[in-house]
What we know:
By secondary structure, this protein is of the alpha+beta class. 41% of the residues lie in helices and 18% in strands. Strand 12 and strand 13 form a beta hairpin.
Amino acid sequence: MKDIPILNVYYLLCYAWGRVQERSTTRLTALSSLSTVQDLLGKVLAGGVNHLFRRGMDRGYVEVREDLLGIRGKLMLTEMAKRALRARSRAACEFEELAVDILPNRILRASLRELLRPHLDVHRTVRREVHSAYRRLDAVSRIRLERNAFGQVRLAGSRRLYAFLLSVCRLLYDSSIVDEQSGRSAFRDFRRDEATMWKLFEEFVTGFYRREQRRYRVNPTGRRIAWSGAGFRSETDRARIPVMEADLILDSPGRRIIMDTKFYRDGPSSGRGGMGKLHSNNLYQLLAYLRNRDKQFPDGPRHEGILLYPQVGTEPVRADIRLERFRIQARTVNLNQVWGDIHKEMLETI
Length: 350
């Protein structure tokens, strides 16, 4: 599979993380001229931080300890006695102050600092933008970014830009690899990492159909599918049964579709030197979803399934079969073409 063009990677990220912005021709032209994903992440992150700075960075109450001439907040009497502050007419105070030095902004600053490191090989023009954005966060503490920091962030529902930028930070963090022997970091182009692209492709497909069509309800009852006729003697037995969770369910009065997204760099077939056969596990899994959800919701049209893959090579995959009276289609979408054609293919798939 050829690497997906940088501009298309940007679209994937926007749909996956709920940030499909107004299309500025100038901005898109600037993005399409980039040659690496680290340049893309740097430009998007710097532009986002600059936008937040102009709009007003989020603030939160942070705990401050300070020696003051007066009294503010809570007095720390033990600290005052230990350091003989009263003799200097000082009071050790602990209080909360509204400030920009909160965890989301610390993650943004740490990620911008990472983009300035030599091993990321960021283009000089993008590096200047990143450095400018980094300097705007001088009032924010520097931290050593750890994986668990992302799970500690709590954002209000209206903070969509923050959520998007923190997702960019997480992708940047996950794409940085530390060599255990030398301790040096290297950057991995996530387009070549199947697990990362699989998750991104799934989130993109869901985000795309939420925004770009109105015929179907998306995941109207959630993605989880109940096992039909399952019985359990205990909660322990219940816990042993794997959860069935579809990637995407599209529901309308006329059609009910269970879509399973897959991302293979070598294509959707298990054969070599040609089309070959579809992966049997993909079919078995989708067939289990169809059987059980059709029994869970028997009223309405019969469920059908779609296996959706990125296209590999020059020929698209178009398969249409019936298994146990369920219609199952296999389709590919070419992510290496102009975005308007991708948009059209995605809508034609359903």
